[in-house]
Specification:
Layout lengths: L24 E3 L10 E3 L6 E3 L10 E3 L4 E4 L22 E3 L18 H6 L21 H6 L5 E6 L2 E6 L8 E8 L7 E8 L6 E7 L4 E6 L7 E7 L3 E6 L8 E7 L3 E6 L6 E9 L10 E3 L6 E11 L11 E7 L4 E6 L10 E5 H5 L4 H5 L7
Antiparallel strand pairs: 1-2, 2-3, 4-5, 5-6, 7-8, 8-9, 9-10, 10-11, 11-12, 12-13, 13-14, 14-15, 15-16, 16-17, 17-19, 18-19, 19-20, 20-21, 21-22
């Protein structure tokens, strides 16, 4: 039979289903705020209601106190009273271990029947649950700290695979990896989520999308040395989200559009800077006279076409005297300075300068030899 990847797994009927013996878990209502009783299948961990389960009937129920036998196991599980078997009020169940009689408190006038006194004395040896045949379970402290057998285990789910690893056992701090698939056969990978702990760089979650060439990383706060989130698409872009208390430069966001543009957003700076960007000219090649900047994540060199800075308004100083935006256009060899709008005005002043006049007699080729400090 051919199975389509988009359809659930085919499970044929079991001709020996009603003759097979199986054990599962019954959770009763009332304890720990349980509103209703239900079954748990131990082989899959799935939860089933009492009236909607894959089981045919129940022969016996036991716990740490007693063992109850169903007097009519031919009945379907939906018609069996599974919530009052230990109270023995329906007559459907019979217990195996004799219950201990509670001693009467002094002052009570209730009479004890003579037959009960004769059959069961005060120092009666009642039948108790037998001890287990297996020896006492002892778990080594070091093995218990691993959390999983042999330091790793794998669990398969529908279109999903989960790998568990012991903490502090992996070199990179990996403790859990979840792989999501597009198909039921788990061939086409959709996403890989890796969870880490005890890393020096405070990386906690890494998400990879193989077919989209996309990577997302989340970090815990590391004081003043790292960011909190990174989104990267190979060869296309990279986005960095910073903690606001990271450093005093006020950088909160940076985006790198590979080969095209890089811009940053700031907050709470003393110089009122809020935005800074560098636009590259991908079609223009270096001729030895243009200002060049090597990108961080590619080996190619790009030519800067324009640089821009923006500043917010300081309410304690006149608006018309504060710079709103500065633009260094290297293609046009011009420098533009724009000022904030004065209250009640719809126009603002701006200035236009020639770049050659500002730099004087210095050559652009000399600027390429100087070290550029990167923020």
């Amino acid at each position: 039979m051919t199975i389509d990847d988009d359809e659930p797994d085919f499970e044929p009927e079991d001709e020996y289903g009603r003759s097979r013996i199986h054990a599962w878990v019954l959770i009763l209502s009332g304890e720990r705020e349980m509103k209703e009783a239900f079954f748990i299948e131990p082989t899959t961990g799935r939860k089933y209601a009492l009236d909607n389960s894959p089981y045919y009937s129940v022969e016996a129920i036991f716990n740490f106190n007693n063992f109850w036998v169903n007097l009519d196991p031919s009945r379907p599980v939906e018609s069996i009273d599974l919530e009052h078997f230990n109270e023995d009020v329906t007559g459907e169940w019979e217990y195996v271990m004799i219950k201990k009689k509670e001693k009467k408190e002094a002052g009570e006038d209730e009479e004890i029947e003579e037959e009960e006194v004769e059959d069961f004395g005060e120092e009666e040896d009642v039948l108790d649950m037998p001890p287990p045949w297996s020896p006492k379970l002892v778990i080594d402290k070091e093995k218990f700290s691993e959390g999983v057998k042999n330091g790793a285990k794998t669990v398969f789910y529908k279109k999903c695979k989960v790998d568990y690893y012991s903490e502090c056992k992996s070199v990179d701090g990996l403790i859990r990896k979840i792989t999501l698939f597009e198909d039921y056969r788990r061939i086409i990978t959709k996403e890989i989520r890796s969870y880490y702990s005890n890393r020096k760089d405070k990386l906690v979650v890494r998400r990879r999308f193989p077919y989209d060439f996309k990577l997302i990383e989340h970090y815990e706060s590391l004081g003043a040395t790292h960011w909190k989130k990174m989104i990267q698409v190979d060869g296309h872009s990279r986005k960095l989200y910073f903690y606001h208390h990271r450093v005093k430069d006020g950088l909160i966001y940076r985006e790198e559009q590979i080969g095209r543009k890089t811009f940053e957003y700031y907050k709470g700076r003393e110089d009122r800077l809020t935005y800074r960007s560098v636009t590259f000219d991908p079609e223009k090649t270096s001729d030895g006279q243009s200002l060049k900047l090597k990108e961080n994540h590619t080996s190619q060199e790009v030519v800067i076409g324009k640089m821009t800075q923006k500043f917010e308004l300081d309410p304690y100083y006149p608006a018309e005297s504060q710079i709103k935006k500065t633009e260094f256009n290297l293609d046009k060899k011009r420098v533009y300075i724009y000022y904030h709008y004065k209250e009640g005005k719809i126009t603002a002043d701006y200035k236009d300068f020639s770049r050659d006049d500002l730099i004087g007699q210095s050559k652009l080729s000399d600027m390429n030899d100087k070290e550029v400090e990167e923020t």
